[in-house]
Design a protein that fits this description.
The chain is α+β, with helices and mostly antiparallel strands and 245 residues long. It folds into two domains: 156 residues, Ribosomal Protein S5, domain 2 (2-Layer Sandwich); 81 residues, Alpha-Beta Plaits, CATH 3.30.70. It contains five helices and twelve strands. Strands 2, 9, 10, 11 and 12 form a five-stranded antiparallel beta sheet that branches. It has a five-stranded antiparallel beta sheet with strand order 3-4-8-5-6, with helices on both faces. The chain has a two-stranded parallel sheet with strand order 1-7. A hairpin with a 2-residue loop joins strand 3 and strand 4. Helix 2 packs parallel to helix 3. The longest helix has 18 residues. The protein is elongated. About 4% of the residues have low confidence. It comes from Micrococcus terreus.
Length: 245
């Protein structure tokens, strides 16, 4: 079963590295080249800056058609046909993004029988077309632009972005490495490790549940002999690799 609505407790995104190094994937359809560029973005300004960078890279291209989706519920959706017949480029690119089936905690190609959702967001796609001399017709353009984005997404392992509670643990420098390994083994997301002059602060991102807080408290008590307690340090959205929801 596939849900058409993004889950309110998280959504699929491209990994952070695709903020600065976009996905690039090329297909050829009847001698025309379709080069899809995908980037992780979080604002409309970032999306438009990325689109302009693709235009500068491909100044000779007749068409750079685009779409982007933003927000934990895909609230912001924009598309542009850039001179192609209306509805044959921007709309299918946008649909390839918003209708992408993902599996929470897995990659963009969900395994059999896994629960599937359509919740990819914070992504911008710019598809460059170099005309190959053969007209594709409206239907051919729709299929080509959609396929260019879908096959580009096939090459990427997505991650989850979830609202998480941040906890800080003060550790002795001699035990910080061991504690960090124990936290990772337990499945917690290590958000940061800050080394100070006298101690080490380990920051963890945990699900916003009392059960998770209780489990962490018990683990820290066991590691420290009851001498250390986790300290709440706010909440924020965090990329969580491999977590199911």
């Amino acid at each position: 079963m596939v849900s058409d609505s993004p889950t309110p407790r998280g959504y699929a995104v491209l990994p952070q590295r695709f903020r600065t190094t976009p996905v690039k994937h090329e297909i050829e359809v009847r001698n025309s080249q379709f080069i899809a560029h995908l980037a992780r973005v979080e604002t409309e300004d970032q999306a438009r800056d990325f689109i302009e960078s693709v235009r500068r890279e491909h100044r000779q291209a007749r068409h750079v058609c685009t779409a982007f989706v933003l927000g934990d519920r895909q609230q912001t959706r924009r598309s542009n046909d850039d001179g192609e017949p209306a509805g044959t480029a921007g709309a299918p690119i946008l649909e390839a993004l918003t209708r992408r089936e993902t599996t929470p905690g897995h990659d963009a190609r969900p395994p059999a029988r896994a629960p599937e959702v359509r919740d990819l967001s914070d992504v911008c796609a710019a598809v460059v077309r170099y005309f190959g001399g053969v007209k594709l017709g409206a239907g051919g353009l729709v299929r080509a632009y959609s396929e260019s984005v879908s096959t580009a997404l096939d090459t990427v392992q997505l991650v989850r972005r979830e609202p998480m509670r941040i906890w800080q643990i003060q550790a002795d420098p001699g035990r910080a490495g061991l504690w960090e390994n124990e936290f990772r083994t337990a499945g917690w997301t290590v958000d940061a490790v800050d080394y100070g002059a006298r101690d080490v602060t380990v920051r963890l991102a945990l699900p916003e549940t009392e059960e998770a807080a209780s489990l962490l408290g018990s683990q820290v008590a066991a590691l420290s002999g009851g001498q250390v307690q986790p300290q709440a340090a706010g909440e924020r959205w965090v990329d969580v690799t491999g977590r199911t929801s």
